[in-house]
Design a protein that fits this description.
Radius of gyration: 27 Å
Low-confidence stretches: 1-50, 340-355, 370-383, 480-495, 575-618
Structural class: alpha+beta
Mean pLDDT: 75
Distance between the termini: 55 Å
Helix content: 25-40%
Shape: globular
Number of helices: 20
Number of domains: 5
CATH topology of the largest domain: Nuclear Transport Factor 2, Chain: A
Number of strands: 13
Amino acid sequence: MSDQTPPDVAIPAPAYVAPPTKRKPRWLATGAVAVLAVAAGAFGISVLSASDGAKTPEGAVHAMFDAIDHEDVIGVLEALDPNERDILRPAIEETGEQAKRVEVASKDLDLHKVRGIDLRVEGLAMTTTELGDGYVAVDLTGGTVSSASDLERLPFGSTITDVLAADEREDGGDLDRTDSGTIDLDGVRLVAVRRDGGWHVSALYSIAEQVRRDADPQPEVPDFGNGIAAKGAASPEAAVREALDAAVHLDVRRLIELSPPGEMAVLHDYGPALVAAAEDAKQGAFEAPEVKDLELQVADGPDGTKVVSPTSYSVSFGGDEAWSFDGRCTTYTYSYDDDYASDIEDEGTIPVDDGPQTETQKVCKGDVGADVGSFLSLPFAQPSGDLRVVTEQHDGQWFVSPTRSIIESTVGTLKGLDADQVRRTVRWWSGDWWAAEPAGFWKACGVDQPASDASSADGEAAYEKCYEQLPDDYDGPRYGYGFDDGFGSEEGPSEVPGEECWTVEDEAAATSCFEGLYESGQISASELADFRCQSVYADIPDDASDREWTAAEDAYDACVLQQEADLRAGGGGTTATSVAPPVTMAPASTTSTTAPRTTTSSTPAAPATSSTSTTAPG
């Protein structure tokens, strides 16, 4: 038996951990609903015809929200810019099939309409402003989207339903299985584009326009069609190498030149502003990462595209961080100095020895966390061998397709997973962290790997036994967090000052608890202020509008500033209710600040007898 203690985690713990609620599976349901919604889009993909679009920009926006109102994913797709819609089709089709295969969706999923979800759009009103020939900004001045879902009716597969059932048993049968909310559309700007005589909503142009408006100083509206010209590379491999070189050196102009002129027309149009912003960001010290030993392979993709994947590489960031990929495993190495290590040691996170500290982690294909991590997060942020870059040819030149690459890397990874891997990952997300440990970890300690449907208690017991028997020299891949650092399964004395105060139900006693920690120097003025000012959220309902949440956040920020000032001045502060401004809603703006050529359009809220659904979800 080894006397090895569980390794600590080199991640500082949060200042406080909020008390658990009985709604922990909600995030799981929300994520699964998103998967099912995409899956529903697979319905009728083969019969989608090229839409002529709407007659007006307002018509395109109305068509999109009408489809949302009827939970019609196909209708939403029809309202989109054809350049965007045509890329989404194969991804939606494939995701629908894969969701069934890995038992996230039930086999009898009705792709005409996802049961258990009800969306309702009301009071839609808008103004339009011409940005350029064929480009119109549609500003929503009113309207809401309300939603309701019922976990009992959602067409989940056993991968999801089994975890929900287990969570309900742990909660004593008191699991909240319904959810609802309302989104305020006032202030949203969409951009409609004209394609082949018809108007469509463009998701990409809408995002770009929002970024432009939020910039300070705000750039001018682009000269559509006269931005940065497309300039590809001689081959698929050359396109990827040139794009990588541009990325590590923050050469935004070259990245835009290498993007497809049709699919990424938005980058070419808004490119000058993006280049200017990047140049401002590059002012000062900047050390580019160093990429070495990059080997690539090229394979045929759909519709004449070529898919480029790395077979090996190494990346270093100064002298502190390095990644290396050997074709199967990615090794991460992090180094830090004594001062940083001492800070972490003070927080009880990692043991510290004399001299510079180095942490190494290896993640291999086939590990639950590695495979599913690539699927769930943007692959470009993951240094793994699952990255697949899609290139396409136009006029003899090769370009890198960002959207196709993301889809290929995410959906392509999902295709390589089996139901057991996905089930383990869902267990991991829901709190059974032992489920993510790779087979090599269990083999090294001589303990049978718990089945993906094992009980939480059995899985945790097996994990603890494995740790007790784990060889001291084990350096294989692993994902568990150990037991004594606040992240594992065992309960014990909190190592995070203030965590115990959050569990005190009596408000006066909780306040006394935090103030005692502050007076003894265990928490800072900011941490005490945070606790005191949480009360501004007490009366905010779950279905509060965005404006209500924004007002509450502003009140919270003002409260914290006042509390910190009082505490540091030696005044001791006061209760949040006496310093936080009241949460009131600012009136909706009725004045236009846009250029001329503005028109208005509105629709009344749907009456109870309209075609908009007023029934229970599903």
